[in-house]
Each structure stands twice: as C-alpha cells, then as structure tokens.
Queue: 2 jobs
Job 1
Amino acid sequence: MDYRLPTTVVPSRYDIRLTPDLDAARYTGEATVRVEIAEPVTEVVLNAAELAIQSVAARDASGTVVQGSAALDEAQERARLLFPSPLAPGAWQLVLGFTGTLNDKLHGFYRSTYKDPAGVMHTIAATQFEATDARRAFPCWDEPAFKAVFSVTLVVPERLVAISNTAIVSEEPSGDGRKVVRFADTIKMSTYLVAFVVGELEATPPVMVGRTPLRVWAVPGKSHLGRFALDCAAFSLDFFEKYYGVPYPGDKVDLLAIPDFAAGAMENLGAITFRETALLADEASASHAELERVADVVAHELAHMWFGDLVTMSWWNGIWLNEAFATFMEMLAVDAWKKEWERWTNFGVSRAAAMGVDGLLASRPIEFPVREPKECEAMFDLLTYEKGASVLRMLEQYLGSEVFREGVRRYLREHPYANAETTDLWRALGAASGQPIPEAMDGWIFRAGYPLVTVEPDGTGVKLSQRRFLYLGDDAGDGAAGEPWRIPINLRASVKGGWVDKRLLLDGPETHVTLPATPDWALANAGGHGFYRVAFAPSMLKKLARSLGKVAPIERFNVVSDAFAVTQAGHMAAADYLDLTGKLREEGDRNVWTVLAASFTFVNRVIPESARGGLEAFVRHRVGLAAARLGWEAEPGESELVRQLRGDLIRVLGTLGNDEETQAQARALYARYVEDERAADPNILPAVIAIVATVGGPAEYAEFFQRFRSARTPQEEQRFLFALGAFRDPALITQTLERTISGEVRSQDAPFLLRAMLSGVHSRALAWDFVKQHWQTMATQYPGSAYRRMYEGVTALISPEWERDVNEFFTSRGIVLGGKTLDQYLEQLRVAVRFQQREGAALAAYLARTPR
Ligand code: BES
Ligand code: ZN
C-alpha cells in the first residue's frame, strides 16, 4: 500500500473558516485551498478523517467552477474529490464545506473541560495535530513536506477568546451574538503546526521580546501562575534569536495552558499549547523540580519555532531531528538562564534513561525508514529525545560549541520555510567544521545500541576496548559483535597523584594509551558527555571508589549508573555494587542520589517480602547520614539544588527506608502546613505529602482526595493525585484504581497514575489485576500516547509467574503498542527476572546483615 499522497496536486494556501459550537461539541467549516495541478486529473486525493464533506467545488483562474463530490476512506484517512471532467493543469482553488465533532480524545479539534471555583463546568475547544491529526479538523495534505500558508478565521460566541498561530487582523460582530475573528497569514509551514483554541481564557499582560509580544494564557483565575513561564520564555526567545542568528519567524507568541492535554506541550507556531503542569506554577510554592519542568518545556517548545517550524523534517523518519535538537537546545537555554541549576549534570539522568532502553536487544536506531505515518507515533520516546540529544551534545563537545553553532546557523539559512533531512544537517555541520560528519555520526544515528568501553591497566598506560553493551547479551547469542563505534574518548588518568588528560578517537575494537606511568585509575568519559558506558578492571574500580570525592558530580553519576547497569547485565556481583554505594554516603549531588535511589528501588522490587525489612535498614544506612546533615530546614542563602536534594532524601528515607522518625516528622510538618501553607519549604512538601500517604489511613485519604480536587496550582493537584496511589491499605489502593476509570481523574493523568501504581511494591498486584480487568475501557478512554506509557509499569512485575502472566496477557489480547515499545517492556521485565534468579539468594543474605 502507498502511504504517501500523490504530488500531482500541491497546495500552497488554505483559507479556513471554522464555526465551533462548544456546547453541542460540533463545528462547521469551510476550506478554500489554492493548489497547483501538474497534469489533468478527475480525482484529487488528500487527507480527512472523522469529517463529513458536504460540498466540493473547483475554480480555475478564469473563474470557471466545476462541482465535485467527495468519497471518504476512513481506514486510509483520505478523501477523494471526484470531478465529472478533468481539471486542467494550472492554478485552481478547491472549495470544501464540511462538518466535524469536537472529540474527547485529545487529538484533532477536541474538547477540554474544567470546573470553575463555583463548580460550574466550562468547555474549551483546542487542537493537537502532531503527528497526523490535522486531517481530523479539516481536509488537508497532512504530510510535513506539503508546506503552505494558512489564513484562519474563527467564528465564535462574543464572550469567548479565539486564538490561532498569528495575530488577529480583524474582529467583527456577526450579528447573531457571535464574532468573526480573522488571523494574519502564517508563514509557509506544515499542517501539523496549525492550532485553534477557543474558550474563556485569560492572559498575562504581554511582554515584548524585540518586536514579538509574548503572553501566557490560562483558564480564568490562573493566569497569574504564568509569570514564571513568561520569564523563562522571554529569556529563551532572545537566547534562540541570538544562537540561531535568525529572527523569530512568527508575529507573536502565545503560550496556552489547556486543562486536558495528551502530551507535555506542542510547538504550534505562535500558539504553543501545554498541559497545565508544564506551564503554570506558583514560584513561591513550587519545588525546584517542578519549576525546572516548566522551564524545560517552555524552552524546548520555543527552540522548535526555528528547528521544526521554520525548517521541518521532510518525512517522519526525521522526527529525531526535531525532537533531539529541541531537547539539546532546551538544555542550552535553561543552562544559560539558570547557571546555578547545573542543567547539564541533571541531563545525565536523561542520558542514562535512554541507555536503559538502548541496551536492549529490542532497541532501534534513532532514525530508520518510516513508511506508514502511524509508525512514528511510537517514535516519541527516550531514543528520539534523550539519545538524540545526547549524541548531539557529544558532537557539539567534539567539534567545539562555536563551530557546532555555525553549522546549525548554516542549516537554518539553507532551508527556511522548507524541509530538510539528517544528511542536510550533516552537510552544514561538515561545511562549518571541515570534518567528515557522516562517518563520525552514522553509527550513533542509524544503528541501535551503544558501546561499553572497558578500561584496564596495560603496561605504563591503559588498554581501552569496546563492544556493544547489552543487558541480555550473554543469553541471546552473539549480540556483542558488529562494527565498532567511533567514540570520542576524554581520558582522565590518575598518575602518581596527579591527573593526565587525553583526547582520542577510539574507532577500532581496542587501543593502547601510553601514560607516564601505570595509573591508579582512569576515567574514559571525563566530563560525562559521551553516550557510552565504562567498565573498569576491578583493581581500578577499587581505587577509583576511594577517589570519587575528587571527580565531578557527572563523572560520579556515570560511575554509579554504569556500575549498576553492568550489575543488571550480570557482569558485576550485586553485593559489589551495593558495597560501592557505601562509599557515597556523604554524596552531595542530587543526580548521584537519583541514580542511587533508583537502584535501591529496583532491588526493592526484586526481593521477596521477607527481605523488605533488611532493604529498609540498608536504605536508612545509605541515606541517613546525608539526610541528617541537611535536616529539615532550609538555610538562608542555600542553593535551590541543595533544597531539592533535602526533599529527595527525606522522600527516600520516609518511603523506601520506612524510617519511623522521618515519618513522624513528616506528619508533624504536614499538620503545621495545614494550618499555615508557608510552614514547609516547597522543596520538601511533595516528599512530605508522599510520606504521609504511605503511612496514612482512610482519614488522610479522604483529605488528600479533597485537596486534589480543590488544588490551587497544577503542582499541588499533581502531588495529591499521585499520593492517592501511594497509600498502602488495599481498600484505599482499590479506591484509587477505580478512580482511574470513573472520570474523577483526567484521562491525561490516569495512565501515569496507573503506571506508578503498577510500579509500587504495595500496589502492583492489585493494580495489575485491575488493568487486566479494565484494559479495554482504558484503551478507549485514554489518549493513545499515554495508554502506551501506562504499560511501562509491567516492568516492575518481577517474578517468573508474573512474567508469564504478562506475556500471556499481551499475546492473547493482541495488544499493539506501536514500534518496539512492547518488546522493550517485555525485555526489561526479562532482565529483571533473570537478575532476581541470579542474585536473589545473595541479595537476601546481604540484606540480612547489619549494613556497613
Ligand atoms: N512535538 C512534541 C509534542 C508531541 C509529542 C506531539 C508526541 C505529538 C506526539 C513537543 O515538542 C514535545 O516534545 N513535548 C514534550 C515535552 C518536552 C519538554 C520534552 C512532551 O510532550 O512530553
Ligand atoms: Zn519537541
């Protein structure tokens, strides 16, 4: 089957007029499309889905009109416009009248609802078109290479606000209680970037960035929560104009918080839509992590205005170009905005998450041929975003940041208002750097996986060797062979008490590096930018473990993260890994603690109930010292990162460590918070809420549910919602599970709550039974992207019996999650069960001892 539209008829301009009826959840529309016809046709093929096309006419340059009709093919999501006589080659206008519904599926033109403080329900109409849902709103050539100019008119009730990609050029009453809102022409752009939003929205006063007015929109009463995002956006917009060397391509920027939103945010040119938690926050009461999320998403979407919107991938195989690049630029911008956040160190957590997937046999290359556009739905994953951004960062560090920026500028200058491919970016970077980019990069982009670099003492120096890192490599035949990667190595060796730094390219299976003497240890990924893992000869790891305090936080992070991965893969004993963590009890970096805590959580999921007490004591021993040092009170002048770390440590101690003292303090602090909201530092409050839930009963549950419903900020709502999944009483767990399909929890959130409950050792059995029972309801209620993510939770169902049950569930129901997603989840579960079988007895013995 052919998935691409014919190119005999090519659109250049759409005049779209839509009249939505929010109460009836319907709309009528008219689209006049200017097209160029290359050869005589009696049939014009374009995309349309869930629309009724009532009238079809074609008008040529002389004004001759040919009436036609439309035949819809819902399976192919196409419309064929049929004409009684051939339309001659040349310029034509196609005039289409159609109707559609405002759906509840959070894609296409859809309905989002919210209650005002008085409990009255209100409706917003909003759009989400990426990847292929513009066709659900109006008939169009819904492929990224068919760029066109859009002129939008919205006819809406007087009291509502209408927003689209560009500034309003006129607003006139239509005489029937409605107004006709006309928007300026857009730049030439792809259909997936068009947006309409209609509702009772309220804006912040505009901020001017150069000539561009910037605003944040929210439901009434919430726009004051847009100030933080506005600051970040103002900085980012200016930062990107300077970095790219190209002015912002639109005429205004609106950032819109939509109460129901499937993704995190969407880069519609000039009308960027967000879920509320990714845009709105109260700076005084949000934690560092919550604010960082807002800054990340805002910077990311603004980065797309150039990379994605001005220059767009030619087809969906190139989606990584968009998303990896925006993720990379998001880091650069946030790092420039808030140096003290150490954003690139925190990016280590994302890089490691991508390595978690890319170490699977079921991984995939970042870019691969895409035929069916639906295939690309499953491509919005850690490999596209985080691996993609990691390899761009690796390249940027290798070429030098200014050379890299010059290459990016060249790329944008060469393809404005047009489309480009990965090879075009390589060509521009090659021209700027004088280096052979495809040779260096293709192994990272067009091949799955990444190398494990082994460092061993070798005469006076070290031997470096590479092979593919695989969690299941040994079980699954020879997955380790294959072409070597071209690895930019930053070596830092400890030689005779000093440091020696060397840069080299490891492009064969192994190499010897000569040093002044045999080093005590040598880091092979100094600076931490490389997308590879490092394993050390045991003698070196021992010495390195004693010097960890001297290396950078990102380097410590990588040592721990790599050691744990190597342990999961079976190349290091779990006991040795757990011993290593004993060297980090005084750790002060939040990211290192994130990887430590994640590994303890994994162990907790693997062990039997009988070993739980031992694990809790172990966690208290590992975390207690650092937590006690930070205490419960923020010091004046303390950095935000330290404050956030305090919250993170309290959370681990009070939940995983089951520490009674911490739990008592958390309860007491919560009681004070109820009296006075400023009693707790915002960075520890989310932890306090989570802890109170884990030790709470029906009274706390009722209160938390109430607070979830009456929350004043999206962050507060989110904290209490996820806390509802953290209670341990089975009756309360069941109540929360039922709420995921009752309509009390938004469909944008329920799948993520279920994922968390499938992952918790106290809730997973009940959650899994519930999902098995209600998966069909969930499949129809939840947006597809989130429904897919829910099932990630099955990777925590770690036992041979559960593993069989999970496999049987997916096989017998024929559940398809798109791409390799399901294979990846199942393989992750296999890795965990294998680890349990291999290490179970040793772990039980280890955890039965007094921790040391
Ligand atoms: N283009 C995406 C939104 C998107 C994702 C549309 C998947 C269709 C399918 C947007 O730029 C994006 O990447 N959003 C992220 C947030 C970002 C900060 C990583 C998201 O939605 O999670
Ligand atoms: Zn993006």
Job 2
Amino acid sequence: MSGGHGGPITGSVLKARTMHLRRKLVAGNWKMNGSLAALTELGPIAEAARAAGGVDVALCPPFTLIAPAVARSGGLSIGGQDCHWAESGAHTGGVSAAMLKEAGAKLVIVGHSECRAERGESDSVVRGKAEAALAQGLQTIVCVGESDAERRAGDQLAIVARQLEGSLPDDWKDGELVVAYEPIWAIGTGKVATPADIAAMHAAIRAALVARFGDLGLRIRILYGGSVKADNAAETFAVADVDGALVGGASLTAESFVPIVEAAAAS
Ligand code: PEP
C-alpha cells in the first residue's frame, strides 16, 4: 500500500473515521545508555506488556545491545535509534537498515532531534534514512518537533509542517510508518507540552498526513515524545490523535516504563 491523495475531510468526519484504526504504540529510546546487565529490565517490561494487552511495546537500545536484547525480548519489538541511508559502503561508523534487520531489529527511529542537531541532519537526509529502513521492512518512526525559540516565535506549526513534507517518504506499507512529535524543549527537560498544545499539533499533523496520503494518512500512528512519565502518561494518551509515546529517560527501567505501558493499554 502506498500514499495517495484524497479529498478534503472535516474534523468530525476525521474523528469518527479514525476511532479503532490505530493500536497504541509505546516505544522506549535508551539513547546512549544501557549495558548487557541492564537487559534484565526487559523481562518485567515484556511481562507487563503481555498482561496489559492491546498495546504495542518496543525498545530501542544502543546498536551493540540489539542482538542480545532480541534474544531476551519476550515478545517486545526491539529496534535501532538510527540507520544510514545507504545499504553498505564507505561510511565509517554507519549502520545500515539491513544490518539492523540482520541483528533482529523490527523498527528504527530516524530524525531524532539529537541526531538532527548533533549531526546536522537535514529533512532530506532523514527521508533517505526512512526510505532505506522501509525498504528493509522495518517499522520506521520519523521524529519531528520544534525548538524552544521556534515555539516562542509562534512558528511551531510551520516548522513541523516543513519537517513532515521533507522527511516523510511517499511509499510505505500500512503500519510501517509512524510519526513522533517531539518538541525539543520538552525532551529530557521535565517540561511536558500541555494537552492543548499536544492536541493542536497532533491535529495539524493528522491533517497534513491526510492531505498528503488521503485515507491512508488516518492509519499512521502519531506518537508524542517529551518527558512522558508515569504521572503524565494517562492525560497525554487521552488527547485526540495521540497514538502512543516515544519515551526516553523513563524507558530505562521497568519501574518507570511499565506504568506508561499500562496507561496506554487503559486509554
Ligand atoms: C526522546 O529522546 O525521544 C525523549 C522523548 O526523551 P525523554 O522522554 O527523556 O524526554
């Protein structure tokens, strides 16, 4: 299935048509944290995910931990935090989507704001990475989000619209493409966007997806990311068009991650 163009669609029609279309996804991003010893966290997370039911749960540890994490995943999807746009070649330090797949990864995050900032990744680079990941059949989480200065200037909707336009590939299979809205000022800071801010942005993202892909845009999950914790997860998941979360710090232990998974399952 690939993207096509559909006609205009109103807010209430959109809401009615999207109910039950999308199962929630909670994905953990360990960033440059973790160790073989830390993989003991996976057992209780997998057990809680099974018990909660009805929610997809994924963890993205550093590259070196993917294969051992797959071996003890207990049904969790294990993924990478980045991939190269090329399949192979002279790219020192690079890891291709094919390599992730061979290690047992089922998904990959691309365009995280830390990669965009530290490595100067443009939207077209992010799109190349997403295309490479999708070509390998990996579920692909494409991150977008504005900086603090951009929000203070009132430019957040325009910035995210531009990132979506430039970063999302045209062709993908149903279920494989996921968008994560992560306001940079909320990542790792403890500042969470208000439900109203999240609702406004997720509605704008949904409208952009439908404008570009027609009804297929209704099936793309939109995750919120930015200091999601046990104490704010339920109110975040209650927001329309929030189809799950991308979780950094709170995904590092079962104690902090499981309540988020349970909140998603209960929403
Ligand atoms: C992230 O890095 O994707 C993230 C959302 O981090 P945190 O949950 O720690 O803010």
